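Dear U.,

Please find below the material for section 3 of the report. The protein was modelled together with zinc ion; I have listed the sequence and SMILES used, followed by the predicted complex structure.
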Amino acid sequence: MFEFSLSTEFLSPDGIREMHTKMLRKHLSFCKERSPFYRELLAGFDVENMTVDDVAQLPFTCKEDVVRDYRKFVCCPQEEIRDIVFTSGSTGTPSRFVYTLEDLLRNTYNEERCYKIAGVTPQDTILLTCTMDRCFIAGLAYYTGGVKAGAAVLRNGLASLESHLWIIAETSPSVLVGIASFLVKLAEHARKEGVSLECVKRIVCVGEPIKNNDLSFNGIGRRLQDLFPHAQLFATYASTEITTSFSECEFHQGGHIPADLAYAEIVDEEGKSVPPGEIGEVVVTPFGITGMPLVRFRTGDMSFMIQGQCKCGRCLPRLGPIVGRKKHLLKYKGTSIYPQVIFNTVAAIAGVDNYYVTAKGSDLSDEITVYVSVTDPSVTAETIRAKLLVTCRAHIPVEIVSPQETARMVFGQSRKPQHFFDMRTH
Ligand SMILES: [Zn+2]
């Protein structure tokens, strides 16, 4: 089980449906048998005979269900638990997740696949710039998946820019894994220090979107590509709950969703499925998990499906870039804006060091303020406001603050940079 195979990658549309149905039946039967939560929730469903077309009949699972009592989701005895993590909890209460040995092997396969479809081979050396510890499950998988893909892997984690540059100069890694905004800082520092980054051929971008809806680079993606002109950037999407990476192939046409690991849907406000291309909430049923499996998990992330065969020949479903978090949608002077649009705009401006956005208010309109620190003093609040007027079609207040202030806010609270602070009370 969980072996990378080209026959799974290149299944026909019928083969994908068969795979989905096979995995779904096994998954639902397991959940119903082992999980107290799903024993109750799936009581009236004949799960052994369901097909993938029947998924829409099943109830959703929300993050709140897991936060309320994670124990109801645990399907294994204590002696089978091998890893315990907490979700980043950038908003609300962090939730606990447990993984069995089988789950860790599944995660390894999941990331091995992510590297392989991005063209990583045993000739490559991968430098990880994200943490492996701090109860972060993906960091571990970036390591074990890279090892399984046959590459040499450097675990330099959340180290200083100087430390990463020293390692780059010493080992010439061909692959970087990290958060785009951090890698931009790393590359700018490398330029200043005269360290060449030409060795880097591939960058696996994790944790924040680098693409616009039309699959062109967003602000941070464009800056990163300009700083690494010799590298291909790969967008990925994953989370602790879904423990599956939707990652790009070398044609960069959306994140391929592995048929043997997950089934994904896009639903509207009422929970009804929406057609490809239409934006809605991403709902994922990850297969083959034995510690804390989930059924139709509402991720809270907004995106869309991309229809048709990819240029690489895969017929696997593809997910577009994440447009924003559902609950972060801002109502501002009659316009609806995702903070992600503000991030994309501000991050694209050369000379911007860092930024964060706050939202306050308790009635129908939110009060938004964008705080920006700059490295180039010619970038003023007025120039940023003018750019935001174009992308958000609204006059949004901008304040220039010190780099210490943005660093304190953005990196102070969580292992992932946090650019949005929601203080709304409604
Ligand atoms: Zn492809």
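For the text of the report, you could mention the following: The chain has two domains: 1-324, 329-422.

Regards,
Y.
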